[in-house]
From TrEMBL:
Superkingdom of the source species: Bacteria
Transmembrane regions listed in the UniProt entry: none
Biological source species: Winogradskyella arenosi
InterPro entries according to UniProt: DUF2147
Statement: the UniProt record of this protein carries the keyword ATP-binding: no
Signal peptide (from-to): 1-20
Keywords assigned: Signal
Domain DUF2147: 25-139
One protein family per Pfam: DUF2147
Protein name per Swiss-Prot or TrEMBL: Uncharacterized protein (DUF2147 family)
Record carries keyword Signal: yes
Length: 141
């Protein structure tokens, strides 16, 4: 009886850990206005929170661009390598409680990430009061 309970507990913990890791990895960002792929982003976990950084920018003219309109530690930092999603934690089937930075204008929004049913699409939503903007990123395998 104890052995079965132990095995069941281990399987439950593993399944919870795997579901939490579903959003981690590399994603191709898709512009919600043009439908074009813009960059490659890595979503990762650090100290129990989820972060996102730009790995590469697809437009050759913007490869050396910097976050000129950003404030604080991100001011004038290169877009490639820029951490622009910070401090999200898992809350049921979404990750929220953190922020997302729009490097094009330096504005910071509350952020929510949610994995779509196909597991290869990530819903990325930035909030400002009652207004929000949503993008759908595609998993890079």
């Amino acid at each position: 009886m104890i052995k079965n309970t132990l095995i069941l507990s281990i399987l439950l913990l593993l399944s919870l850990n795997l579901s939490a890791q579903d959003i981690l990895g590399k994603w191709k960002t898709i512009d919600d206005n043009t439908g074009e792929a813009k960059s490659l982003v890595e979503i990762y976990e650090k100290n129990g929170e989820v972060y996102g950084k730009i790995v590469s920018v697809f437009n050759p003219a913007k490869k050396s661009a910097k976050c000129n309109d950003c404030e604080g530690k991100q001011k004038d930092q290169p877009l490639e390598g820029l951490v622009f999603i910070e401090g999200l934690t898992k809350n049921d089937d979404v990750y929220d409680g953190g922020t997302i930075l729009n490097p094009e204008d330096g504005k910071v929004f509350r952020c929510r990430l949610k994995l779509e049913d196909d597991k290869d699409t990530l819903q990325v939503r930035g909030y400002l009061a009652f207004f929000y903007r949503t993008q759908y990123w595609k998993r890079v395998k």
